[in-house]
Amino acid sequence: MTDTQHTPPGEPARPQPEGGGITRRRLGAFAFGALAVASVGTATGFSISSGTKSGDLSANLTMIAPAGAGGGWDGFVRETQQAMRLAGVTNNAQVVNIPGAGGTIGLGRFSTMDGQADTILATGTAMTGGIVLNKSPVGFDDVALLARVAEDYDVLIAPADSPIKDLDGLISEWKKDPERFTWTGGSAGSVDHLTIAQLAKANDIDPAAFTYIPKAGGGEAIATLLSHTSDFACTGYNEVSDQVEAGRVKALAIAAPQRLEGIDIPTMTELGSKVDLTNWRGYLGAPGITDEQAGQLIDILRRTRDSAQWQDALARNEWTDVWLTGPALADFIRDDQKQVSELIGELRL
């Protein structure tokens, strides 16, 4: 599943105490935000003092996952950290989590780290959506683009006892009554939500007509599905593959450009529904870094990507290598922003 936030966008505002007081929930959020900032400051301060003196950015590297522990971004960053260490690409790699708002809280903090070349931030489709949905004042133009590294794909699943047997049957019934089914997946505006919207649009169904229950992870989506609180779930295949293989849920189709090797699940596109939204993941550099520093960071990421340890991570997580840098990456991100903005507009969030 794509990276999610604790409070999904679009959730009704909770009542505040009379007199404008700060609730305990908000105090907790402020305290956590301060702690996250302090953690990043400590980690990057250590890196700067020991790594940049020699000009070798591989001496110490801090990687920010703009989501909570256990989520998709966190897993991606920690797999990168592990591959870097085992392959000897970096001497010391640290991970810091700054969750919230589709990655835009982490992005906002990162945008203030001017010139801190030994810190990188994970990014991807979820952040593209978060920037649009949260009307973020900070975007991709405010940081340095480094590399797109990998992508994974959403799978459309139903309970094992669902009367719907395949995607054709689902589309047929969905068209009869666009509001009939309840769906679940990641946060509102996440790649899960947008994949369902694209599937609806591909079949002339109003993308804003269906009921969507946002959840924080694949486990929660599965629970919602098995309790029949929802009819279908759309989530990252790597998060529910064990449930599919165990027969607890059935996979109707996967949102991949072509069938995944060793996985007998048809793609939405081959079944007649052109769905090409992928959950890509990559890294950004801090604003104000030099071309030489950006080059060093890209080389660190490239050497990690070429390592046997990273190739093992790709296979274990059902990720696809989609390495891209330079002007081609900038073009890709512009296209991604356009597509995601249009889909979010269709959802009328």
What does this structure look like?
There is one protein chain. The chain has 349 residues and is α/β, with parallel strands linked by helices. A 6-stranded mixed sheet has the order 2-1-3-10-4-11, sandwiched between helices. It has a 5-stranded mixed sheet with strand order 7-6-8-5-9. The relative contact order is 0.17. The chain is 42% helix and 18% strand. It is globular and about 60 Å long. Strand 1, helix 2 and strand 2 form a beta-alpha-beta unit. The protein has 2 domains: 18-152 and 279-347, Bordetella uptake gene, domain 1 (D-Maltodextrin-Binding Protein, domain 2, 3-Layer(aba) Sandwich); 154-254, D-Maltodextrin-Binding Protein, domain 2 (3-Layer(aba) Sandwich), CATH 3.40.190.10.
What's this entry about, in short?
The protein has 349 residues and is an alpha/beta fold. It is 42% helix and 18% strand.
Number of strands: 11
What sequence of helices (H) and strands (E) makes up the elements?
HEHEHEHEEHEHEHEHEEHHEH
Helix content: 40-55%
Helix count equals 11
In CATH terms, the superfamily of the largest domain is Bordetella uptake gene, domain 1
Keywords:
Tripartite tricarboxylate transporter substrate binding protein; globular; BUG; D-Maltodextrin-Binding Protein, domain 2; alpha/beta; Bug_dom1
